[in-house]
Structures are given as structure tokens and as C-alpha cells.
Specification:
about 450 residues, six-stranded parallel β-sheet, N-(1-d-carboxylethyl)-l-norvaline Dehydrogenase, domain 2, 20 helices, alpha/beta, about 15% strand, globular
């Protein structure tokens, strides 16, 4: 099948490579010329495990090609996926849809034969109808329909998620579109049990509702963790007790320093805004967002308390900058809030991350230039002479470090475990003072 994907971010590039892997003729478009030239040369613009060999293999086989021309992509395909960014556009949580609507305007005049235009981007309810009107305005004679096909990829395992999806949701009432998309996705399933058909509006809302629910679970367990700190309970024991209930389960029930990334913060706020526009109060979702922002400062408060609220002259090591392991994505990363807060308190910060360091420094902006903040590549170099060590992101190499070595190289013996990864009894036996989340 001839497929085009507009956008080469996490969603677009993974989708394009995965469709090509299943034998489709895929043309991937992006208006960023440098990014497209890099992709043609085999340079992947994001860090995502498994993506580079997938792109390389299908590019070399001729099944995956790249262009800066959206019109060329439109003329090529039976199915066109719009996978452009829809970032938060303002303080009210409304997503910015300019890129999506511009892509629709670009492809409209160049549709060739019956075409299914698919919104793969995360968009508010009713966006499929708006995209359909835009395309119709640019090409009154076009034979097309617009469907919604939300993505449910987790950064760090996005390739695995796309190749082996929990479910694929197709939002359309058009039988021709259903048939085309069924054919496209059938190779990803042994059976069609995980292929769900619904209206476009239901599909659009499903994406937001799923992410908001997961965000609420994370904020709930973080709220419980803070209560555990106050009453002297252990949230790890509480979490296991809760998660053993089949009605609850243990997924997304891990306390920490809050969620980040491109989806949960943006999607919860967009859902709250959509609800407000229709006179509905999404109070649980609003609370989840509010709790999450507060949770990003939990470790900061613990560090301040440890040093008597005076961080001047202190050197703090910080491991993990990305919002989660196995990605270089620092959007809404808790580490950003933590570093900015500790630096403003007068601490010198030496930090380390396997992939996200350059992106993190760029995101810090003036903070990186105006405060004593250093990025190093070796975690033990980061810890050398430090008065305390903070774990923000649980990369595998940070989960079981050589604590004896840390005891030798650190200037102080304070560990702040923002992901509850370390064995408290073990590190305290080595003379460390340990502080986790809700423990």
C-alpha cells in the first residue's frame, strides 16, 4: 500500500518505519530541510531504542523515503497520516493546531483518487471534522475522508509498542476508509480482536481519556506517598498491597518526582479545557495536574531540610535528566524544575544523563549560563566531592551503582532517591543518609 506520513517526530518517524517494515511503500515528509537531509544520510533526529536500524533497513530497501514536499507526499498515497506536533499553545491548555491545519492545506489540492487522511496527532474532539472542511475548501472535487487514529506509544519502547500494539483505534464512519485501514494494520495482529472501530469524536476523546487516567493514577500514588512520609508508612508496601487487587493492578502505580514528557501534561490540560468549554468540571484530572506540579518539588524540599535550608556552597550531583529512561526527551521533565530550584537556592549542580544532556542544557537556557551547572558524562565524576546525590530518572545504569565507590568519592553521604530504586538498608549500612519518596 502507498502510505505517506507528514511529520518526522516520535510518532511520525516510528509509524513510517513500522509501516515500511511490513512491506508498504512509505514516503515521510517534513518541512525541516535539515532533518530530512539528516534522515536521508541515516541520522536519526531522536533517541529511541530500535528506531535507527528500522529506518536504515527500510531506507536501504527503498520502502522508506523522505521528502520536504507535503504536496509530493499527498500525491503519493492512498493513506496520509498527519503526525505533526500539537503542543500546548497557551496558558489555558489549548493545543496549538496550526501545524496540523497547515499540513491539511498543503495536502488538499494534491490528493489523487480516493484518499484517507488520518489524524495521528493528538487533537481535541471535533478536529477531524475541521480538517475535513479545510481540505474540502482547498479541493472541492477531492474524493477523500478524514479518520482519527490516535497513537498510544510510550517513549523508550515506541517501536515495540507500534509493532505489537495493545489496540488500534480507528475513528471513521466511512466503509472505504475502514477497509483501507484494516488492510494496513492487519499485519500487526494475528487476529483483529484488538482493532476497534468507532466514530472520529470517540477516537479523539479516547486518547485524552486514556492519558488522563494514567496521569491520575501516578498523581494518586504520589499523594499516597506524601501521606506515607507524614504518618511513617512505606509507600512501597502500600503500593504492592494495592496493586495485588485485580481490580487495580500495579501498572502506573509507582511513586516518584512526577510525570513529564510530551503527552501526559499536555493532554490532561487539553482535556480539562475541552471539558470547561462544555460546562463540565474534570476535577479529578485537574487535581492530577496540580498534584504533579507540586510533586516535582518534593525532592527539593527534602534536600533543603537536610541542609537546614541553606544550600549556598553545596555541590549536588544529579543523575537522570530525561523525563523517563530510554529517551532524550526533556519536555516537562521533573529534573528541569528540580535543577532550577536548587540552583536558585545557591547550590552548584553537577549532572549526568546517558542521552538527554544537550537537550537539557538547551532547555535550561539562561539558568545554565547564570548558575554553576555542569554536565558530565560519567556518573561517578558527577558524584565526586558532592555533598549529596539525587536520582531523578531511573536509567538502568543508575539503578544498582557501586555504593562503596560512591561512599569513597562523595564529599557528603546523602542520597535522595526520586524513583525509589535503591535498597535503603544497604545504603544506610554503608553510612549514607537515605531519603526516598514515601519511604
Amino acid at each position: 500500500m502507498k502510505v505517506s506520513v507528514i511529520g518526522t517526530g516520535y510518532v511520525g518517524l516510528v509509524a513510517a518505519a513500522a509501516f515500511a517494515e511490513h512491506g508498504n511503500d512509505v514516503l515521510c515528509a517534513d518541512i525541516d530541510e535539515a532533518k530530512i537531509e539528516g534522515l536521508r544520510a541515516g541520522k536519526i533526529p531522536i533517541y529511541e531504542p530500535g528506531l535507527e536500524p528500522l529506518v536504515k533497513r527500510n531506507s536501504e530497501a527503498g520502502r522508506l523515503r523522505f521528502t520536504t514536499s507535503n504536496p509530493e507526499a499527498a500525491a503519493h498515497a492512498e493513506v496520509i497520516f498527519l503526525a505533526v506536533g500539537t503542543p500546548t499553545g497557551g496558558t489555558d491548555g489549548a493545543p496549538k493546531l496550526d501545524y496540523l491545519f497547515q499540513a491539511a492545506k498543503d495536502v488538499g489540492p494534491h490528493l489523487d483518487g480516493f484518499t484517507v487522511v488520518v489524524n495521528k496527532s493528538t487533537v481535541p474532539v471535533g478536529t477531524a471534522e475541521r480538517v475535513k472542511r479545510i481540505i474540502a475548501d482547498t479541493n472541492a472535487d477531492a474524493d477523500f475522508t478524514v479518520a482519527s487514529n490516535p497513537e498510544f506509544l510510550k517513549e523508550g519502547v515506541a517501536v515495540q509498542d507500534f509493532m505489537h500494539p495493545d489496540r488500534v483505534i480507528i475513528g471513521t464512519d466511512d466503509e472505504r476508509a475502514k477497509n483501507l485501514l484494516n488492510r494496513l494494520y492487519k499485519p500487526f495482529f494475528r487476529t483483529s480482536e484488538r482493532l476497534f472501530h468507532m466514530t472520529a469524536r470517540s477516537a479523539e476523546l479516547t486518547k485524552y481519556a486514556a492519558n488522563a487516567y494514567l496521569a491520575a493514577r501516578i498523581s494518586f500514588v504520589n499523594d499516597v506517598a506524601n501521606l506515607c512520609d507524614a504518618v511513617g508508612a512505606d509507600v512501597e508496601q502500600v503500593r504492592r498491597g494495592m496493586g495485588s487487587d485485580a481490580r487495580i493492578g500495579n501498572k502506573f502505580l509507582y511513586p516518584g518526582v512526577g510525570y513529564g514528557g510530551s503527552c501526559f501534561p499536555k493532554d490532561t490540560r487539553a482535556l480539562i479545557r475541552t471539558a470547561r468549554e462544555h460546562g463540565i468540571s474534570m476535577s479529578i484530572v485537574a487535581s492530577a495536574d496540580r498534584i504533579n506540579e507540586t510533586q516535582k518539588l518534593v525532592l527539593v524540599r527534602k534536600v533543603r531540610n537536610h541542609f537546614g535550608n541553606d544550600l549556598s556552597g553545596k555541590t549536588l550531583a544529579l543523575w537522570g535528566l530525561a523525563f523517563k529512561p530510554n529517551t532524550d526527551d526533556i519536555r516537562e521533565a521533573p529534573a528541569l524544575t528540580i535543577v532550577r530550584s536548587l540552583a536558585s537556592d545557591g547550590a552548584a549542580i553537577r549532572m549526568c544523563d546517558p542521552e538527554a544532556g544537550p537537550n537539557f542544557i538547551a532547555a535550561l537556557g539562561d539558568t545554565a549560563n547564570n548558575f554553576p551547572i555542569e554536565l558530565v558524562s560519567d556518573p561517578y565524576v558527577a558524584a565526586a566531592g558532592a555533598d549529596a546525590l539525587i536520582l531523578c530518572t531511573e536509567w538502568r545504569q543508575y539503578r544498582s551503582p557501586d555504593f562503596k565507590r560512591l561512599a569513597e568519592v562523595m564529599g557528603g553521604k546523602a542520597l535522595f532517591d526520586g524513583r525509589n530504586q535503591w535498597d535503603r538498608d544497604h545504603v544506610e549500612a554503608l553510612g549514607f543518609r537515605y531519603a526516598g519518596i514515601g519511604r
